[in-house]
């Protein structure tokens, strides 16, 4: 099963004193807000364009049946590229889809309940806004990653929290659990978040609304994250 957690053998590949013991920052795609029948072909082009660690199915206005249908179509594509399928908000649908995990916001339910439904191997991510306290709580409750944001203006979601990038660096000093940066991230503004310590960049609008193509945007992220 695709995993998005830190590779425990990663640190041992660095001689002492080199590297910070964490794998390089990776891309975590958030789906477009609505599912289009042409999307599987777009997704394949995107996954051919550069490495992607995870894909979150985030269809806020879709019915359960629409989410299940979309997930059912996308799951084998993602599996073929070894990309983790994370379902937003809904542990029950994540289980029905046999997805790799679920992303929970602060109002989306209990981490322990999601864990008991999805099992030990599931990836459970938790929104922590700009809060060190929420992140510590999420880690203690068994989250597999914590997400901070919104770092930049975004048209994808109404947001009220604006963390400083230093929260990412702080997190890497207190926890081995990966941290995800989210909110208005593009190839042009991502560098400070990568430098601050983000393990993953979660991106939606910059990819799906890219002036040239979604694949061009993922290729630009690949160049940035390789550098
Ligand atoms: C990776 C990631 N981080 C944060 C969010 C936001 O979750 P939430 O606060 O529950 O808001 P919605 O996405 O449900 O509108 C996320 N989805 N993914
Ligand atoms: C879901 C979510 N949570 C905080 S910002 C955000 C939107 C992410 O999408 P974009 O990359 O288009 O800003
Ligand atoms: Mg949510």
TrEMBL record:
<keyword id="KW-0808">Transferase</keyword>
<keyword id="KW-0479">Metal-binding</keyword>
<dbReference type="GO" id="GO:0009228">
    <property type="term" value="P:thiamine biosynthetic process"/>
</dbReference>
<feature type="binding site">
    <location>
        <position position="108"/>
    </location>
    <ligand>
        <name>Mg(2+)</name>
    </ligand>
</feature>
<comment type="pathway">
    <text>Cofactor biosynthesis; thiamine diphosphate biosynthesis; thiamine phosphate from 4-amino-2-methyl-5-diphosphomethylpyrimidine and 4-methyl-5-(2-phosphoethyl)-thiazole: step 1/1.</text>
</comment>
<feature type="binding site">
    <location>
        <position position="88"/>
    </location>
    <ligand>
        <name>4-amino-2-methyl-5-(diphosphooxymethyl)pyrimidine</name>
    </ligand>
</feature>
<dbReference type="GO" id="GO:0005737">
    <property type="term" value="C:cytoplasm"/>
</dbReference>
<feature type="binding site">
    <location>
        <position position="127"/>
    </location>
    <ligand>
        <name>4-amino-2-methyl-5-(diphosphooxymethyl)pyrimidine</name>
    </ligand>
</feature>
<keyword id="KW-0784">Thiamine biosynthesis</keyword>
<feature type="binding site">
    <location>
        <position position="157"/>
    </location>
    <ligand>
        <name>4-amino-2-methyl-5-(diphosphooxymethyl)pyrimidine</name>
    </ligand>
</feature>
<feature type="binding site">
    <location>
        <position position="184"/>
    </location>
    <ligand>
        <name>2-[(2R,5Z)-2-carboxy-4-methylthiazol-5(2H)-ylidene]ethyl phosphate</name>
    </ligand>
</feature>
<feature type="region of interest" description="Disordered">
    <location>
        <begin position="1"/>
        <end position="23"/>
    </location>
</feature>
<feature type="domain" description="Thiamine phosphate synthase/TenI">
    <location>
        <begin position="27"/>
        <end position="207"/>
    </location>
</feature>
<feature type="binding site">
    <location>
        <position position="89"/>
    </location>
    <ligand>
        <name>Mg(2+)</name>
    </ligand>
</feature>
<dbReference type="Pfam" id="PF02581">
    <property type="entry name" value="TMP-TENI"/>
</dbReference>
<feature type="binding site">
    <location>
        <begin position="154"/>
        <end position="156"/>
    </location>
    <ligand>
        <name>2-[(2R,5Z)-2-carboxy-4-methylthiazol-5(2H)-ylidene]ethyl phosphate</name>
    </ligand>
</feature>
<dbReference type="GO" id="GO:0000287">
    <property type="term" value="F:magnesium ion binding"/>
</dbReference>
<dbReference type="InterPro" id="IPR034291">
    <property type="entry name" value="TMP_synthase"/>
</dbReference>
<dbReference type="GO" id="GO:0009229">
    <property type="term" value="P:thiamine diphosphate biosynthetic process"/>
</dbReference>
<comment type="similarity">
    <text>Belongs to the thiamine-phosphate synthase family.</text>
</comment>
<feature type="binding site">
    <location>
        <begin position="56"/>
        <end position="60"/>
    </location>
    <ligand>
        <name>4-amino-2-methyl-5-(diphosphooxymethyl)pyrimidine</name>
    </ligand>
</feature>
<protein>
    <recommendedName>
        <fullName>Thiamine-phosphate synthase</fullName>
        <ecNumber>2.5.1.3</ecNumber>
    </recommendedName>
</protein>
<dbReference type="InterPro" id="IPR036206">
    <property type="entry name" value="ThiamineP_synth_sf"/>
</dbReference>
<dbReference type="GO" id="GO:0004789">
    <property type="term" value="F:thiamine-phosphate diphosphorylase activity"/>
</dbReference>
<keyword id="KW-0460">Magnesium</keyword>
<dbReference type="InterPro" id="IPR022998">
    <property type="entry name" value="ThiamineP_synth_TenI"/>
</dbReference>
<dbReference type="InterPro" id="IPR013785">
    <property type="entry name" value="Aldolase_TIM"/>
</dbReference>
<comment type="function">
    <text>Condenses 4-methyl-5-(beta-hydroxyethyl)thiazole monophosphate (THZ-P) and 2-methyl-4-amino-5-hydroxymethyl pyrimidine pyrophosphate (HMP-PP) to form thiamine monophosphate (TMP).</text>
</comment>
């Amino acid at each position: 099963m695709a995993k998005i957690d830190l590779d425990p053998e990663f640190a041992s590949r660095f001689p002492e004193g080199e590297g910070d013991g964490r794998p390089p920052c990776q891309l975590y795609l958030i789906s477009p807000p609505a599912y289009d029948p042409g999307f599987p072909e777009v997704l394949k082009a995107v996954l051919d364009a550069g490495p992607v660690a995870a894909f979150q199915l985030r269809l806020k206005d879709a019915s359960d049946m629409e989410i299940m249908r979309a997930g059912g179509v996308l799951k084998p594509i993602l599996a073929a590229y070894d990309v983790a399928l994370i379902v937003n908000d809904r542990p029950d649908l994540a289980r029905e889809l046999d997805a790799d995990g679920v992303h929970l916001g602060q109002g989306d339910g209990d981490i322990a309940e999601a864990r008991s439904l999805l099992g030990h191997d599931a990836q459970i991510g938790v929104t922590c806004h700009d809060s060190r306290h929420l992140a510590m709580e999420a880690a203690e409750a068994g989250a597999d990653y914590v997400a901070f944001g919104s770092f930049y203006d975004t048209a994808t979601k109404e947001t009220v929290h604006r963390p400083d990038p230093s929260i990412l660096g702080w997190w890497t000093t207190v926890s081995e659990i990966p941290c995800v940066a989210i909110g208005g991230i593009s190839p042009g503004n991502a560098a400070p978040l990568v430098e601050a310590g983000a393990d993953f960049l979660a991106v939606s609008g910059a990819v799906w609304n890219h002036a040239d193509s979604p694949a061009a945007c993922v290729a630009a992220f690949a160049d940035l994250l390789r550098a």
